[in-house]
Amino acid sequence: MTANLPKTDDRGAWIERVLATNLAEIRPAERDVLARLKELAYDDDHLFAVRLAFEEALVNAMKHGNQSDPNRSVRVRYRVSPECVEICVADEGPGFNPGAVPDPTANENLDKPCGRGIMLMRCYMDKVEFTPEGNEVLMVKNREP
Amino acid sequence: MAEAGDIVHVSDRDGVILVRLLAGTVRTEAEVDALGRGLLSVAEVPGRQVVLSFLGVKHLTSLVLGQLIQVHKRLAESGGEIRLADIDPQIYEVFAITHLDRLFKIYEREDEALASFAGGAEA
What angle do CA B111, B115, B118 make, to 5 degrees? Predict the structure, then answer.
């Protein structure tokens, strides 16, 4: 199932990129997203939040979703408007249940090296929604709280 | 492939190992792996006291947090410890959100962190 994104509306068209499963692929896409935020005078806190969530979503898609398989790709769509930033990341993995990810802040999980990416995405973005299969996520960061 | 020396600078400060991150960001697979190798090589000596300075670091991901946790565990197993310093307020917030400020002792400046080992001070 694909996230139900409006094709065009008053927030403009989506930009789409297909990335190879390689963390080095993240940087150019991220640079473009951040340039668009700067162009619309989003503040430093927004830049930090979007950058962090963008990277966490793509790292999750490549490492956990695509299981670092270089034959799989990640599709990222985004658009930046004066009101908000919307980002959609889809991998080619089998999906997962985000509700089953253990709470990384629980005492018994505090010293486990994994499991913080989704939590950070949820903390820094205003909306984080996974498709039922779990291999696509839509994130929104509003300019106003 | 990134080398550990590209990512971290390691020096001995009167018995306390000071590690400075050289890159403002660590994000590619090679960079994260190099960071892990650099930190784990420091942790190979049992009981080591380590200060990791984040001076100049403006961004990090959960992959880096994972590397820090592995080093923390490795050092703790041998009676050593890693303490953190010079963390940008936005990055400190990441530590606070993930509650890792409970796992690591965090100091404002690296000299404070170094002195904390010398004096056995608690954060």
Answer: 150
Reference B80, options B39, B31, B22, B111; nearest CA is B39
* Share above pLDDT 70 across residues of chain A, in percent, rounded to a whole number: 94
Contact A98/A134 with Cβ under 8 angstroms?
Answer: yes
Whether B61 sits inside 8 A of A55 (CB atoms) is: yes
Please check the confidence at residue B30 and state whether its pLDDT lies above 80.
Answer: no
Chain A residues touching residue B95 (CB < 8 angstroms): none
Cβ atoms of residues B65 and B57 within 8 Å = no
Q: Which residues of B touch A (CB under 8 A)?
A: 27-30, 32, 59, 61-63, 65-67, 69-70, 72-73, 90, 94, 97-100, 102-103
Residue B86: strand, helix, or coil: coil
Q: How far apart are CA A89 and CA B84, in angstroms?
A: 33
Check pLDDT > 90 for residue A116.
Answer: yes
Indicate yes or no: CB of A120 within 8 angstroms of CB of B94.
Answer: yes
What is the distance in angstroms between the Cα of B6 and the nearest Cα belonging to chain A? 16
The set of residues, in sequence order, having a beta carbon less than 8 Å from that of A51 and lying 6+ positions away, is A30, A33, A34, B59
For residue A19, the chain B residues in CB contact (below 8 A) are none
